[in-house]
Amino acid sequence: MLTLTPDERRALRAQAHPLKPVVMIAQNGLTAAVLKEIELALKSHELIKVRVFDAEREQRDAWLNEACEALGAAAVQRIGKILVLYRPNPELHKAAEAPKTVRKTPAKAGAKASAERPGKPVPTRSTPGKPVANRRGVARNSTKPRSRPAR
């Protein structure tokens, strides 16, 4: 079973937060087919969530430990019926580290200065103007305050 430092565990919990469960453990429990699906998911994603249905807390803890030992993974977190598992896949990191050939094109004469500096964001909207007094967001003909009719 893989062990994680508290800092690694914290970072993995943050990465796992938006994930949806990809494997479900139902009434038959942690079978060989479920372990195979967890294996495939760990191979392609590294970090996965598993949802457990119809089990008590002790049973969920036992299944989490059993899956981690059988697959060589680390238990990141268990909250309620959601189990989070992690196993690094070096093949995924090799593909990400492969150098990509970038074709540089010369800047055109009419190109903006921000296009030459890719580090700065390009603004997409103009800033809103200052509010005009006595105009509640609706254009009116006069800027004078409206007088109320006498009762």
UniProtKB/TrEMBL annotation:
GO molecular function, one term: RNA binding
UniProt keyword annotations, A-Z: RNA-binding
Stretches the record annotates as Disordered: 93-151
Protein known as: RNA-binding protein
Lineage per the UniProt record: Bacteria, Pseudomonadati, Pseudomonadota, Betaproteobacteria, Nitrosomonadales
CRM domain span: 2-98
